[in-house]
Amino acid sequence: MDKHVIISIRGSQGFPAFEEEDGIELVTLGRLTREDGGYLITYQESPLTGLDGTTTTLRVADGRVILSRTGPVCSFMVFEQGRRHFSHYDTEEGPLTVGVSARRVKTRLSDAGGQIEVDYEIDVGENLTGENRIRVVVSEPGVH
Questions:
Q1: How many CB atoms lie within 10 A of CB 71?
Q2: What angle do CA 31, 11, 26 make, to 5 degrees?
Q3: Domains in the chain, start-ordered, CATH in brackets?
Q4: Cα angle vertex 63, ends 37, 141, to 5°?
Q5: Phi, psi for 46 (deg, rounded to 5)
Q6: Measured on CA atoms in the order 113, 104, 65, 125, is the torsion positive or negative?
Q7: Which of 66, 88, 89, 139 has its CA 20 to 30 A from that of 73?
């Protein structure tokens, strides 16, 4: 199964040291593919996200979500509830390795679409640098 879908992404990032939160919402076209007992969700980033020209893929299987980006911005992050993974992230200043600890990973996907919810923290050198939330809704065109 491989089909066109509408992807609605809502992300927020909090900075504990500054007690503030930034958010972004994006609705875009993409693809939903069933593969290896899970699903791939793929879409092109836009200038709105600051990642223009970058392809983002979410691989969802076995209670885990893997986010990878290729293009002008490259990154690889693993979200698995209750586990900390080290992830590669490219910044304007150069590559960076960060710790990613998922507090909550909830996935409900089928061939018709569904939802992904991930709440996670990012740390550098074991110092908390951000608390983040991602909500992704995948639907077939024309279905609300």
A1: 13
A2: 50
A3: 2-139 (2.40.128.20)
A4: 65
A5: -125, 170
A6: positive
A7: 139
Residue 78 and residue 98 in contact, taking contact as beta carbons nearer than 8 Å:
no
SS3 per residue for the chain? CEEEEEEEEEEEEEECCCCEEEEEEEEEEEEEEEECCEEEEEEECCHHHCCCCCEEEEEEECCEEEEEEECCCCEEEEEEECCEEEEEEEECCEEEEEEEEEEEEEEEEECCEEEEEEEEEEEECCEEEEEEEEEEEEECCCCC
Q: Which two tokens stand for residue 40?
A: 């791939």
Residues in the chain: 144
18, pLDDT greater than 60: no
The pTM for the full model equals 0.85
Other CB atoms within a 10 A radius of the CB of residue 142 amount to 6
Q: Which amino acid is at 111?
A: D
Owner of token pair 């992704």: 136
Give residue 143's pLDDT band: very low, low, confident or very high (50, 70, 90): low
